[in-house]
Amino acid sequence: MYTANRAEEVKLLKNLWTSQPTTCPKCGGAELEHLHKKAKKSNTRWKCPACGEIYRTIGMLKSLPKE
Ligand SMILES: [Zn+2]
Fold first, then answer.
1. pLDDT of 21-40, one tens digit each?
2. Which residues lie at CB < 5 A from ion ligand 1?
């Protein structure tokens, strides 16, 4: 989890999947970028250019706490 609770984490995931501008929830210092800029069709992996954190949306989805 990168955010405080499940609802926030789901919101973060939705933002990434729909390629919304998303500020890094870890450092707040930059917007997340595609990890592989050339592979635009894949938006499952993102990276923060400020702190270097890598976000894997599939892993984030799997680690969501149960409601
Ligand atoms: Zn960051």
1. 999 999 999 999 998 766 55
2. 24, 26-27, 48, 50-51
Least Cα distance to 4 among 18, 27, 25 occurs for: 25
pLDDT of the residue at 12: 96
Total domains present in the chain: 1
Q: With respect to residue 15, please indicate whether it lies within any of the assigned structural domains.
A: yes
CA 4–ligand 1 middle distance (angstroms): 16
Q: Among all chains, which residue has been given the structure tokens 């706490």?
A: 65
pTM: 0.85
**Ligand 1 center–CA 34 separation, angstroms:** 13
Provide the pLDDT confidence category of residue 66 given band limits of 50, 70 and 90: confident
- Residue 67: inside a domain: no
C-alpha span between 48 and 6 (Å, rounded): 21
Q: Is residue 1 situated within a structural domain? A: no
Give 41 Cα–ligand 1 centroid separation in angstroms. 23
